[in-house]
Write a structure and sequence with these properties.
alpha+beta, two-stranded antiparallel ribbon
Amino acid sequence: MWYYWPSLYNKATPEFWKYIYCKYGTCYPESGTDYFKKAISMAKKVNELLKDVTDRGPGAFKQMNKALGVNVGYWCRNVRGGAQIIEQIGVCYDRDWNMMDCPHAKMCAITAEYTDYCSA
């Protein structure tokens, strides 16, 4: 789970996964285990589609949207001095596991900082 559903905050505890399932997985007709297996399967597909995204700055969102054919969601957090950092990037799905535009993504200020934590 850590590999396909990483967390910047190290919150991946059993309580965290229970919260995720209760929030998103209860509409899935199978068990919680099957829900997470499906989520990992979808993450693998998304990773394959995004393998050619090379921009590590603000242009990455345009590249991701183009590669996936939908608008990804991204959420920001306000930090000291009124700056924003991108806290979460997500791909949204309908109940049939078709990718869709993320309807409730909080838009960030144009000056939000993008930090590539993975290549640091």
